[in-house]
Amino acid sequence: MSAERLRTLTSWHADWKGLRVAVLGLSTTGFSVADTLTELGADVLVLSESAEEEYARLLPVIGARLELGSLADVPAALSDFGPELVIASPGFPPTHPVIRWAQESEIALWGDVELAWRLRDKVVRADGSPADWVLITGTNGKTTTTQLTATLLAAGGLRAAPCGNIGVPVLDAVRDPAGFDVLVVELSSHQLWYLGQSDAEGELFPHAAVCLNLADDHLIWHGSAQAYRDAKALVYRNTRVACVYNKADEATRRMVEDAEVVDGARAIGFDLGIPGPSDLGVVEGLLVDRAFLDDRSRSALELTTLADLERAGLAAPHIVQNILAASALARSLGVEPEAIHAALQGFRLDAHRIQIIAQHGGIAWIDDSKATNPHAAASSLRAYPGAVWIVGGDLKGVDLSDLVADAGRTARAAVVIGVDRAAVVTAFQRHAPAVPVFEVDAGDTGQVMNRVVEIAAGIVDGEGTVLLAPAAASFDQFSSYADRGHRFAEAVREWIDRGSDDDAGSPPAGI
User: Fold this and answer.
1) Parallel/antiparallel/unpaired status of strands 160-164 and 132-137
2) Cα angle vertex 187, ends 182, 191, to 5°?
3) Cα distance between residue 251 and residue 132, in whole Å
4) 138 labelled as ligand-binding?
5) Strand 20-24 and strand 43-48: pairing?
6) Among candidate residues 337, 258, 248, the one with its CA nearest the CA of residue 291
């Protein structure tokens, strides 16, 4: 009976009462799931190895139970509970013992995004329909494009909510009593993998979707590059209107070609070149749309100019690509070019995304700590050729050889940090031996960036660019990529305050 009942649960107004649901993980996402399900009357057991005090305190208040402890094996509390449904937070990989147990036991396995889709009719628009969904994924640029898209939609008069992997659970957006016209949903590969486990009743039918780019990342979680690619490709499944893809990234085009979409959905390409019909691109310094107009074979609509983007700090090539992707999504929902142009004039990037933190004495200091993988770091290096490159951290099993051999060759020098320094140094020795390499082996997190800044300042010797684009995760030495960026900025400010021109001297001998 459980499978038959689950097939009926496709509305907020369905009968969820008494449904036994095990929720794995008690972070922001896990709590949003538990809170939603208890409101619906389900019987909820939350299992987590740890929990923030506030969430642990609130669970019994909302009517859910909490089981804290190791999940290295299936706990007796879970098997005794006999769940009809397991909803996992995105941090649980396919190889996790509890996930395998659920699959082997033929228990339905959902993520929070599928639950939100099924409940999307809680708050509806004036015509009685739920909000449209726009899906955004990619190895890099997801959050910026999500923010851009929501900003452009709002400029066009639509009530838009950025949510998902950006930090606001989709369930919170679905339950917001104010209601929205569009949910702009950033999806990680982990969330997409869980959508791949859906039955037909749980499949999403987005208005539009984009995969911005594809490069190796999260390979340990997925098990292989192919599995990672397959998860990302799910973003296009059942798209109704616009499948937006990156013409400069062949993998995204193939995803669209292979996708099962609703009849009538169009493929919309974008890149930095001259656009063909059904594309967005750049012509003589103008960002233009040749996709969403009647006479697209012979004309184009101007969206903005590279000069305007330069004034707003948005002219780095990979940011321009994000702007084109977001514009395509917004245009698919009827936002006019004039609204896009106006909105972009006031848009600013988040911290730690190619952020200029200081320009002093001829040196520009750039914080792109969010560049946590090779693809993102390559974009930064292309935006700032000849920079002193601060690189390294936890490589997550990814090889930097291709990055170093390509974009890394343009660096003036490399300052290497992090637990995987040896692999980075070796990559330079093999693939870019002409680039001077300086290794920072400071074990104290509080001293790492001070040492980095001293070395980098000595290398540029009063003129040049210093770029923090680590191509690696931060958790080996810092609490987050934001912490890494903050500490870099603090070290730069301290160096400036204590009289940088006198302190900058010859750098130590390179490797």
Assistant:
1) unpaired
2) 125
3) 26
4) yes
5) parallel
6) 337
Side-chain half-sphere of 468: how many Cα atoms within 13 Å?
Answer: 33
> What average pLDDT score do residues 103-107 get?
96
Instruction: Give the chain's largest Cα–Cα span.
Output: 77
What confidence tens digit (pLDDT) does each residue in 27-59 have? 999 999 999 999 999 999 999 999 989 999 999
Instruction: Find the helix or strand (DSSP H, E) in which 244 lies.
Output: strand 242-246
Inter-residue contact 391 to 438 (CB < 8 Å): no
Lay out the sheet containing 464-468: strands in order across: 355-360, 363-367, 464-468, 388-391, 413-416, 437-439
3-class DSSP assignment, residue 375 = helix
pLDDT tens column, 229-246:
999 999 999 999 999 999
394 token code pair:
């936890």
Report residue 397's pLDDT band, with 50, 70 and 90 as the boundaries. Answer: confident
Say if residues 432 and 404 touch (Cβ distance below 8 Å). Answer: yes
Instruction: Report how far residue 240's alpha carbon sits from residue 236's, in angstroms, rounded to the nearest whole number.
Output: 9
Q: Give the pLDDT band of residue 504 (cuts 50, 70, 90).
A: very low
3-state DSSP call for residue 460?
helix
Choose among 39, 37, 9: nearest CA to 23: 37
Q: Which has the closest alpha carbon to 488: 364, 355, 367?
A: 367
pLDDT value for 508: 58
Six token digits for residue 330: 């917004």
Distance of alpha carbon 340 from alpha carbon 154, whole angstroms: 10
Which residues on adjacent β-strands are paired with residue 270? 246, 280
Q: Give the pLDDT score at 3.
A: 86
Identify whether the C-beta of residue 169 lies closer than 8 Å to the C-beta of residue 188.
no
Residues 250-307 pLDDT 10s? 999 999 999 999 999 999 999 999 999 999 999 999 999 999 999 988 899 999 999 9
How is residue 317 written in tokens?
């090539």
As a whole number of Å, the end-to-end CA separation of the chain is 66
pLDDT in tens, 453-483: 999 999 998 889 999 999 999 999 999 999 9
The answer to whether the Cα torsion of 245, 222, 473, 377 is positive or negative is negative
Predicted TM-score (pTM) of this structure = 0.82
- DSSP annotation of 473 reads B
Nearest to 510 by CA among 447, 443, 420, 433: 433
Q: Which residues pair with 66 in a beta bridge?
A: 46
How many Å apart are CA 431 and CA 405, to the nearest integer?
5
Residue 298 φ then ψ, to 5°: -125, -5
Does 144 appear as a known binding residue? yes
Nearest Cα to 115, choosing from 87, 147, 143, 94?
Answer: 87
Q: Could you tell me the CA-to-CA distances from 53 to 171, 223, 463 in Å, in that order?
A: 22, 33, 49
Q: Check whether 139 is labelled as a binding-site residue.
A: yes
Calculate what percentage of the chain has a pLDDT beyond 70: 97
How far does Cα 397 stand from its chain's mean position? 19
- The answer to whether the CB of 92 falls within 8 A of the CB of 188 is no
